[in-house]
Amino acid sequence: MSQLFTPITLRNFTLDNRIVVPLLCQYSSDDGIALDWHAQHLPALAISGAGLVVVEMTNVEPIGRITPWCARLWNDATRWVARAGFDSCGMHGAHGYLLSSFFSPLSNQRENESSGSIENRMRFPVEVFRAMREAWPVDKPLGVRLSCVDWVDGIP
Ligand SMILES: Cc1cc2nc3c(=O)[nH]c(=O)nc-3n(C[C@H](O)[C@H](O)[C@H](O)COP(=O)(O)O)c2cc1C
Fold first, then answer.
1. Cα gap 120→116, rounded to integer Å
2. For residue 54, which of 18, 23, 83, 143 is within the disulfide window of CB 3.0 to 4.6 Å?
3. Three-state SS at 83
C-alpha cells in the first residue's frame, strides 16, 4: 500500500493524504488583493481530494512581486495569514528569489559571513525562518520551498 494515500500530521494539522497542489501564480490580483477569480479557483482545487492546496506565491513587499497582478500580504503580513485562518505557511527559498540566491553557491558571490560554506549560505535564510516561526502560531506547521540543485556541472 502506497504511503501517498495515508494521513500525515504536521504539528496540530493532519492531512488526509500526501498529495499537494503546489503554488501556482495566477496573475489575477488587483494590486495584490485576491478577487473573484481566487474565490472560485482555490475552492475548486480544495475539493479535488488533494491533502494540501498551497496558495500562489504571496509577496511581502512591492518590489518583490513578479508582476503588479501577483498576490501580496505586507504590513504585518506573515500574522495576517494566521488571522485569515490558513493552516500552514511557507517560506519561499527556491527559484532564484532572494533567499534562494543566498543558498546557491552559483549566485552567492558575497565575501562575508553569509557566503562560502553551506552553513554560512544558510545563515540569512535561517534567520528569516526563525523570525517567521516566532510570528507564526506554534501549533501550525511552517514550511520552506527549496531549489536543491542548480543544474550546473560542478555545482552540488
Ligand atoms: C501556471 C503555473 C504557475 C506557477 N506558479 C508558481 C508560483 O507562484 N510559485 C512557485 O514557487 N512555483 C510556481 N509554479 C511551479 C509549480 O509550483 C511546480 O513546482 C511546478 O509546476 C512543477 O511541478 P510538477 O512537476 O508537478 O508540474 C508554477 C507552475 C505553473 C505551471
1. 6
2. 23
3. helix
Q: Which amino acid is at 97?
A: Y
How many residues belong to the chain? Answer: 156
Q: Is the shortest distance between the CB of 23 and ligand 1 below 6 Å?
A: yes
**Is 0.90 surpassed by the pTM of this model?**
no
What atom in ligand 1 is closest to the CA of residue 54? 17
Lowest-confidence pick of 1-10, 72-81, 82-91, 111-120: 72-81
Q: pLDDT-derived band of residue 77, with 50, 70 and 90 as boundaries?
A: low
Smallest Cα–Cα separation from 88: which of 38, 35, 153, 145? 145
Give the pLDDT score at 70: 94
- The amino acid at residue 66 is I
Rg of the chain over Cα atoms, rounded to whole angstroms, equals 17
